[in-house]
Structure formats: C-alpha cells, structure tokens
UniProtKB/TrEMBL annotation:
The active site is at D68 (proton acceptor). NAD(+) binds at D68, G69, H73, N138, D139, R149, R166, D168, T179, A180, Y181, S182, L183, S184. The lineage of its organism: Bacteria, Bacillati, Bacillota, Clostridia, Eubacteriales. Its EC number is 2.7.1.23. It is an enzyme of class 2 (transferase). Its main location: cytoplasm. The keyword Zinc-finger does not apply. This is NAD kinase. Involved in the regulation of the intracellular balance of NAD and NADP, and is a key enzyme in the biosynthesis of NADP. Catalyzes specifically the phosphorylation on 2'-hydroxyl of the adenosine moiety of NAD to yield NADP. The keyword Zinc does not apply. It catalyses: NAD(+) + ATP = ADP + NADP(+) + H(+). It comes from Solibaculum intestinale. GO terms for molecular function: kinase activity. It is found in: Cytoplasm.
Length: 282
C-alpha cells in the first residue's frame, strides 16, 4: 500500500510524532510518499519524495498530520482524485481527525480494513464569468476587505432573490463546516452525514437575521458591495482567498465529488462534539 504523508511543519506535534508514525507504517509494509518540499523537515530513510501532483496521483490514501487546517488542505487535492484521507490530530482541536496521537496503535487497521469511511459533502464555488472552480469541505465566506465597512449582500436561490443582509459578511457552509466559523457566528450544528447548504450572516445589522438551511440541490448566488462602491473578499476553507469586484456574483452548489475521510477511532459524531466543543475551555 502506498501511503502519502502530508505533515504540517508549523505544528510541533507533527514534527514530534512523524518519526513514530512513519516507522509504524513502514513496519506494516507501507510504501511511504512525501512531498519533495518536506524532505528536510520530515526526513525518513526509504521514503519516496515527489512533487505534489505526483504524490496524490500515486498514493492509495493520504495521511494528514496536523490540525483541521491540514486536513482541509489535503482534501483539496485528494478529493478530485477520489483518494481517502486519514487525519491524525497533532493540533489543538482536530475536529475532523480520524485518529488521535495517543491512538497510533490502531494504524494496523488501515491494512485490515477495520475502519469507517465517511463521505462528506463538498461545495462547488465559482465566480460567475470565470472558469476556476474551488472546492470547500467547510465553507465559503464572503466578507468585507481591509476597510471596515458593512456589506450589502443579496442572496439568490435558484435564480430568485430570497434575502438581503447588511452585515460584515456571510458564510455558506457544509454540514461538516457547521462546527467551524458558522458556529462561531451563531449558526446551528448539523450532522455531517446530512447534505445541505447552511447560510449564516456574520454580525448582521438586524435583530432577526438567522441562519437558513437549503437542500442539497439548491444553487445559491451572492453579490456583495458597500455603499462606497467597494467589493468584498472571498475565502474558501480559510485558505484560498481573492478580492471580489462590486458586481461579482459568487455561485455555490453541491459538488459532484465528495471527500472521503477515514475514521479509525470509535465514537459517534455527537460524542466527538461533546468532547471537542462542549467541554472545551479557554
């Protein structure tokens, strides 16, 4: 089995646990693949170092070692190729991780098939008039730019205008992303096995604006501008970002592909929710 390891060099936990993880996998007969740029940060004798595109093309599965951001980054490249991802939490929260660092003894289950494969909905995000397509496992956020001015946002559902907000921005999230930025903005928690799009305004200038959940075959379009003619900013999964012009329309729909997340640890989503969020302090 060819296993690609994508480790976050900015996480001390990733650097600390990488040697043990690599050694365990190699002893189980895995062929280890790493990105060429990580050769110095994550050296391992016998590993094959490849360019990113070749790494994802050649592997059977990807192991993402870091926090939720590392998993999101990895899914971006793995999902279009249908490659499953195992997230090992070496960060703070690791809500999407399928394994904790104190559970590495469960790694042999990758080779015996004793694991759960969770399929998660992705968003297809496009700016009208452009060819580029962005995939989001968590969310797409349209927010104000560097100038702190409130946005005028228009939300269209299946070509019909259904809402307008004056707010700092709006979050369009998947059920998986409902526990991320949307939750911080007052949105509800959704079961990640659901399909649907959650629209949550950010700091709306109203007492009555709340989140709206749309079914999974909906096509949601949003335009945003300020009264001073300025545009907004689009961010996808907290990493891909670009400025929007005042008349730009961002269209979001369910993607034709899905993310495959491997889960080796036991427990339900609701048990993880309680452990990771409800009992968290600080």
């Amino acid at each position: 089995m060819k296993i690609a390891i994508v480790a976050n060099p900015g996480k001390q936990g990733a650097q600390a646990y990488f040697p043990e993880i690599a050694s365990r996998l190699a002893s189980l007969g895995a062929e280890l693949l790493l990105e060429d740029k990580d050769r110095e940060k994550f050296p391992y004798a016998g590993a094959c170092y490849l360019q990113r595109e070749e790494l994802y093309r050649e592997c059977d599965l990807v192991l993402a070692l870091g926090g939720d951001g590392t998993i999101l980054h990895t899914v971006t490249y793995a999902a279009p190729l249908g490659k499953p991802v195992l997230g090992i939490n070496a960060g703070t929260l690791g809500f999407m991780a399928g394994l904790e660092t104190n559970e590495l003894y469960k790694l042999p289950r990758l080779f015996t098939g004793e694991y759960t494969l969770d399929r998660r909905m992705l968003l297809n995000v496009r700016i009208e008039g452009e060819d580029a397509v962005y995939y989001a496992l968590n969310d797409a956020v349209i927010s104000k730019g560097t100038v702190s001015r409130i946005l005028d946002l228009t939300v269209t559902l299946n070509s019909r205008e259904i809402a307008s907000y004056r707010a700092d921005g709006v979050i369009l999230s998947t059920p998986t992303g409902s526990t991320a930025y949307s939750l911080s903005a007052g949105g509800p928690v959704l079961d990640p096995e659901m399909d649907g799009m959650l629209v949550t305004p950010i700091c709306p200038h109203s007492l009555f604006d709340r989140s709206i959940l749309f079914k999974d075959d909906s096509v949601v379009s949003i335009t945003a501008s300020t009264r001073y003619g300025e545009g907004a900013y689009l961010t996808v999964d907290g990493r891909l970002g670009r400025a929007l012009k005042p008349k730009d329309t961002v269209t979001i729909r369910k993607a034709a592909i899905s993310a495959k997340l491997i889960r080796l640890k036991e427990g339900t989503f609701y048990e993880t929710l309680t452990q990771k969020l409800m009992h968290r302090r600080g």
